[in-house]
Design goal:
The complex is a heterodimer of chains A (about 475) and B (about 450). With about 475 residues, chain A is an alpha/beta fold. Helix content of chain A is about 35%, strand content about 10%. Chain A is built from 16 helices and 14 strands. In chain A, the strands form four sheets. Chain A has a seven-stranded mixed sheet, sandwiched between helices. In chain A, β13 (about 405) and β14 form a beta hairpin. In chain A, α4 (about 110-125) runs parallel beside α11 (about 330-365), α5 (about 140-155) packs across α6 and α11 packs across α13 (about 425-440). Chain A is globular. The relative contact order of chain A is 0.14. By secondary structure, chain B is an alpha/beta fold. Helices cover about 35% and strands about 15% of the residues of chain B. Chain B has a seven-stranded mixed sheet, with helices on both faces. In chain B, β11 (about 295-300) and β12 (about 305-310) form a beta hairpin. In chain B, α13 (about 395-405) crosses α14 (about 430-440). The N and C termini of chain B lie far apart (about 75 Å). The chains are: A alpha/beta (about 475), B alpha/beta (about 450). At the A-B interface, β1, β2, α2, α3 and α4 of A face α1, α2, α3, α4 and α5 of B.
Chain lengths: ~475, ~450
């Protein structure tokens, strides 16, 4: 039942076995003697690879074959929502009329402004929010934007000095903590209850008049819905704090619940997760932020508004300024627009239904211990006696990208698994077979994995101890 | 077996859904949603589904409202021709649809490409370490400020930036600086270059960072970088330089003029004009390695003793260090970095030097032609120029801009009597027509 899998390996006999670096294939040094600048303003020479187009095409094609994408096979990387990226959205984003300079006049870019406006509107409806900024270029940038908004809001209320803390559950994404710290806040960590959810007593102890905000995702990273969300929201608001929604898990809720209706004041959307824009090997993503009307005056500048079919930028009156040099990751945003338009109400609702169905079905098929439940879009299994990192390496041999490992830390040897809606039952059965095959294997087999990938197990500790971060460092 | 209706990207048949529900022991899909009634959403978004063709037609129609203008725009965002190779190879799904390389054995290809990207920036900057991307030039500058704060923890809270800095870039910097308790202050420029004497008066031991740009936002080549670096060094401040890889191909190596951190937008290679989307360049000295924000790819060995690549020094990152991380950046611009590396590699050293030489010659040539027009003086600044320059106009600059738009061209307005124009190989073919249009509107 498990897939047979062998990843491409490109072993050059002249390079001790690996695909040579561009620099090892051919380097060229050119002098800058003919450059029309005085010598003291210019460099002497430049040394870079010198390869023909066919050589480069082959190099990068080989590298692509030593990489694994969503179309290569299952990619159930928990909390990353690695769903299929529809092809037509790439073509829509590449339309030449969309590739304009950001400093063009508003009058000459009505089409771009209209699409931005429509996407703001779509996202506001989906999140139950009153206004949306598209500027943050990633989810973490969205978090940081939310922190800036909270800070501006409290500042306007004369409470800037008083509200110094942001409360974050221990199961939250690490970016929450880092974004709050980047905004200058002290982080108060909220321990999860036995069932993995926020515990009302612990929350009560953590909240105070120093609280600027509680950052929460719902469902949380264990895939569990915070059922007491109404009470949580009331408690945060009672102490004068704001409730921030981390949209990383929004794929589980489309059409079933909206952050705005749950009492959240600020939220970010990860369009590269929920709205299927490609993850690009680590980016670019986009992290639009939605707010309730009280926070609208603080949104980053510029915002787009419409009047009689004409669109213009404006600066919200108490704007926090900017979180990106221009207006964010446009090429990503336009793909999200196309995806939302393709699915519509029914498709968006169905995406969540199937994502949740798939997570629960896969969980039901696994021989690993899975605490808590029922799950939404993801679940956290425990590898128990096995080392979760070894389990992950061995799963590579079965042709699947493994789950997120060893997080959250309070689940022993955690395997955070999110299959998304795009896996068929057959695919989930194969995925389960891979999990279960590994669950039955001995320590030695696991420790010697992987065997079918382009590289064998990589010694990350020694790579960190002796950092070689460029081909210049390798040559030293 | 028919597929269920709904998401076109969920492959389930009705029979499979039934089998899966029965395996779980649930009555229907709705029973899986553990959401209290009070917060359930029963309404509609009011978003109608369209098919692919309809959406392509719609977006084409909407974007068709953009005027078809030839842009002579720059000021931080530049258009260079991107070779077809870049689109075709970067669009391979293994690159485009993958995520961060948390499992290096399975993602050697992307890791090697990012390692090569880092290496090219090391060559271009002369510094030891480049990370594999920030969001854009502005966020990279913000990250440089927080780095400066960390490496000079004991004293000082001032950052000095030139008065000529793009407003958006400064605003982002201020947002990063605020959280770190830093204040952004301005030092003056003289004829679009740093006024080093005034800067010298402004620098003291409370300054943690001095920022300069080369080329400047006005397109001039900064002539006294070594002196600025010296001032920063004497006061134990970090010297941060904003630039881009095309300019670095010919300008003095930042490492040779005392630069501690290079930031800027590397998407000048790799991305077309894309409404301001960018790629934050970040390179620094080895001394700051363990304080660097963002991801780093390193070379190591695999179990067979062969060279292999991996994300490294991850203990700096937020998924491990949380609020004590060096940055909150998680999703970065990796795919743009891949494209930048491909573009740089396809140009090679001679192609890059040729491109940069064009960037030095074209603005000078265009400025000369505009200067010959009555009512226009160009360039305003008596400096070497890169890609762009400022012109003074007798008529209102706003009216000139509007007049040029009617004639199919887009330029910057600086104030009532100054405009700015940027010329590269992508708009060079329209220069004759632009000059004719300026003749019509400037007199």
């Amino acid at each position: 039942m498990t897939l047979h899998y062998d990843q491409a390996r490109w072993e050059d006999p002249d390079s001790e076995g690996y695909e040579p670096l561009l620099s090892e294939k051919n380097l060229e040094t050119v002098s800058t003697d003919d450059v029309p600048l005085p010598d003291d303003l210019k460099r002497d020479s430049l040394t870079l690879p010198d390869l023909t187009e066919p050589e480069l095409a082959r190099h990068y094609t080989r590298l692509s074959q030593m990489n694994y994408g969503v179309e290569s096979g299952p990619y159930p990387l928990g909390s990353c929502t690695m769903k299929y990226n529809p092809k037509f959205t790439e073509d829509v984003a590449a339309l030449p009329s969309g590739l304009v300079h950001p400093d063009r006049s508003e009058a000459s870019t009505q089409g771009t402004l209209e699409l931005l406006y429509d996407l703001q509107d779509y996202l506001a409806r989906i999140g139950g929010m009153d206004a949306v900024t598209l500027q943050p270029p990633s989810g973490a940038a969205g978090e940081f934007t939310g922190i800036l908004l909270a800070s501006a809001y409290h500042g306007a209320n004369g409470e800037a000095d008083q509200r110094t803390e942001v409360v974050i559950p221990d199961s939250a994404h690490g970016t929450n903590f880092a974004s709050a710290a980047l905004g200058g806040y002290d982080v108060v960590e909220l321990p999860s209850g036995d069932d993995g959810r926020v515990e009302i007593e612990a929350l009560d102890a953590a909240l105070s008049e120093q609280t600027a905000a509680l950052m929460l995702t719902n469902p949380n990273t264990l895939g569990l819905f915070e059922r007491e969300i109404e009470e949580i929201a009331a408690m945060v608001h009672d102490v004068g704090g704001l409730l921030y929604y981390d949209g990383a898990n929004l794929n589980a809720l489309l059409g079933r619940a909206r952050p705005g209706d749950m009492g959240f004041d600020i939220m970010h959307y990860n369009v590269h997760k929920t709205f299927a824009t490609p993850h690009g090997g680590g980016g670019p993503g986009a992290g639009p932020v939605g707010v309730v009307s009280d926070l609208e005056p603080y949104l980053p500048t510029p915002q787009v508004r419409e009047s009689d079919g004409e669109y213009e930028f404006f600066e919200p009156e108490e704007s926090v300024g900017k979180v990106h040099g221009y207006t964010g990751n446009w090429l990503v945003l336009i793909k999200a627009y196309a995806y939302i338009a393709r699915l519509g109400d029914e498709g968006l609702g169905d995406a969540s239904a199937k994502a949740v169905l798939n997570a629960n079905y896969l969980a039901s098929r696994l021989e690993y211990e899975i605490p808590n439940g029922p799950f939404h879009h993801e679940f956290v299994a425990s590898a128990g006696e096995q080392d979760a990192a070894d389990v992950a390496k061995r799963m590579l041999d079965y042709g699947v990208h493994p789950p997120t490992t060893k997080w959250p830390e309070f689940v022993p040897e955690a395997l955070m698994t999110e299959p998304t809606e795009v896996e068929s039952k057959r695919s989930l059965d194969q995925l389960a077979a891979a999990f279960n095959a590994v669950a039955g294997e001995d320590e030695e087999t696991l420790a010697s994995a992987p065997n079918r990938t382009s590289a064998r197990r990589i010694d990350q500790t020694s790579a960190a101890r002796n950092p070689r971060l460029s081909w210049q460092a390798i040559d030293e | 077996m028919s597929r269920t209706e709904g998401s076109p990207f969920a492959p389930h048949t009705a029979e499979e859904v039934d089998e899966m529900l029965s395996a779980i022991g649930a009555e229907d899909e709705e029973a899986l949603f553990d959401i209290p009634e009070a917060v359930r959403f029963d309404g509609e978004f009011g978003i109608e589904a369209r098919n692919e063709r309809e959406i392509r037609d719609e977006v084409e129609r909407v974007l068709g409202r953009n005027d078809d203008l030839t842009e002579f725009l720059g000021r931080g965002h530049y258009d260079h021709y991107v070779p077809s190779l870049v689109d075709h190879v970067a669009d391979r799904q293994e690159f485009l649809t993958s995520y961060t390389q948390y499992q290096p054995e399975l993602t050697q290809g992307f890791l090697q490409a990012l390692f090569e990207y880092q290496s090219m920036l090391v060559e271009l900057t002369g510094l030891d370490v480049a990370n594999c991307s920030m969001h854009d030039a502005a966020t990279a500058l913000g990250e440089a400020a927080t780095l400066a704060k960390r490496v000079r923890e004991t004293s000082g809270d001032r950052i000095l930036v030139p008065d000529l800095i793009r407003e958006g870039r400064r605003s982002v910097l201020e947002n990063y600086a605020d959280g770190a308790g830093l204040a952004v202050e301005t030092y003056p420029t003289d004829d679009a270059n740093a006024d080093v004497e005034a800067l010298s008066d402004a620098v003291d031991e409370d300054v943690v960072m001095v920022y300069a740009e080369n080329p400047t936002v006005r397109g001039t080549i900064e002539e006294r970088l070594g002196e600025i670096g010296g001032l920063a060094d004497e006061n134990d401040a970090m010297f941060v330089l904003g630039t881009d890889p095309v300019a670095l191909s010919v300008l003095s190596r930042p490492a040779d003029v005392g630069v501690d951190v290079v930031v800027g937008d590397a998407a000048t290679l790799g991305l077309p004009t894309s409404y301001g989307m960018g790629l934050g360049l970040f390179a620094t000295r080895e001394a700051f390695l363990r304080q660097v924000p963002g991801r780093l790819v390193g070379a190591g060995e695999d179990g067979a003793g062969k060279r292999a690549y991996t994300l490294t020094l991850q203990t700096r990152e937020q998924h491990i260090r949380r609020e004590r991380a060096t940055s909150n950046i998680c999703t970065n611009q990796a795919w743009v970095a891949l494209r930048t590396a491909m573009h740089a590699a396809s140009l090679g050293a001679s192609g890059l030097v040729d491109l940069a030489t064009d960037c030095l010659e074209r603005p000078t040539d265009l400025a000369e032609r505009l200067d010959a027009i009555d009512g226009v003086e160009a360039p305003v600044h008596d400096r070497h120029h890169f890609r762009e320059f400022v012109a003074r106009t007798d008529r209102s600059a706003h009216e000139i801009r509007a007049g040029l738009e009617v004639r199919g061209f887009s330029i910057h307005v600086i104030d009532d009597d100054h405009v700015q124009l940027c010329v590269t190989e992508t708009n060079a073919g329209a220069v004759d027509d632009l000059v004719a249009a300026v003749e019509e509107v400037a007199a």
